[in-house]
């Protein structure tokens, strides 16, 4: 017997079974995030292909500027979910099922009362100064104002849906979130087509139509996911009639795991928003190209994100079973698979960059800048995927302090400072901005990889 309780059977786990466990959880998440990113790209393409090129470029830029403060709100929900997922996965492995319901209710109540509803109200009221702070030019500000307000209403539905799906993924139930979110995203694409262009007798609302469609899709996703939770089919018990009581141990876990995660997400979003403020100074056309590149980058996140979620679930469950050896084997196998996927995507972005850019816009200037950005995105792929997966491993173990450190140094220090140097001082344009992203990603990867190699994450205690 090893010091951490691993049995001989655990040490002799069949590699084929390891891969089977991984793919059982990963493939629904991969399909979900791939299609979600693809649908998001289609949304952006619809806006970019509107007849009036000036309005089209302003709409793409406005959506990008709106997304950043929205992501700041979602990042706080995500930080809360990271703590919840780590606890639920650990309790699931330890077969403490009664605790999973309590954790989920804590997450849902805290997310709604302290984050989603207050942030939605603030976003709705202060939409104009927020977009102005993001560097929106007059036409982008005018175009994006009502879109942002509508999106903030949908944020409430989106946040609550996120809390439930994170819990389901924590126990490996990934098919239900996949089905529900694919249905909602498909509804969103159809709604965008109808409301952006005015199909089937509906008014052509442009970017406002995209906002309405997105908010309705978020509501649909919540209804589908919450209905499943109430049906009793989930491994996580959920009884609305059962009296809810705040529990000290769960709240302490949220503090030890969730606070560093919240700090990480705040640093990430503040850094990204500051960076985008720098890029926005290059003009609307260049900023539109940057948003297109970010849209494509979100697609490239998909394999890494899917495998990161899988890693969090399987590592947390393994540690709950007192099998750290199995957790390490899951982490290494998932890393190899994720890197292979990401390298393939990198080749696609490098070879077909111009074709991809042409799907979004007919503007030669925007296409030219997008191609430059995508060539750098291609280089980022393997490091991005490995870093995402190992971050998922650490989060699944409840080791969130080092993810905060890596994000602070990479995003807030390196990306912002080098972005300013390359764009403002050396005048390297959009290419300079993306070189800063590349260097930031390399630094974050090195820090997270170093922490993983120490093995200290295996000994994090969850009460």
From TrEMBL:
Domain of life: Bacteria
Record flagged with keyword Signal: no
Membrane topology according to the record: Multi-pass membrane protein
Gene Ontology CC: plasma membrane
The keyword Kinase is annotated on this UniProt entry: no
Gene Ontology terms, MF aspect: antiporter activity; xenobiotic transmembrane transporter activity
Example GO BP: monoatomic ion transport
InterPro entries associated with the record: MATE_fam, MATE_MdtK, MdtK-like
Protein family: Belongs to the multi antimicrobial extrusion (MATE) (TC 2.A.66.1) family.
UniProt function note: Multidrug efflux pump.
Protein name, per record: Probable multidrug resistance protein NorM
Organism expressing this protein natively: Granulicatella balaenopterae
Lineage, opening ranks: Bacteria, Bacillati, Bacillota, Bacilli, Lactobacillales
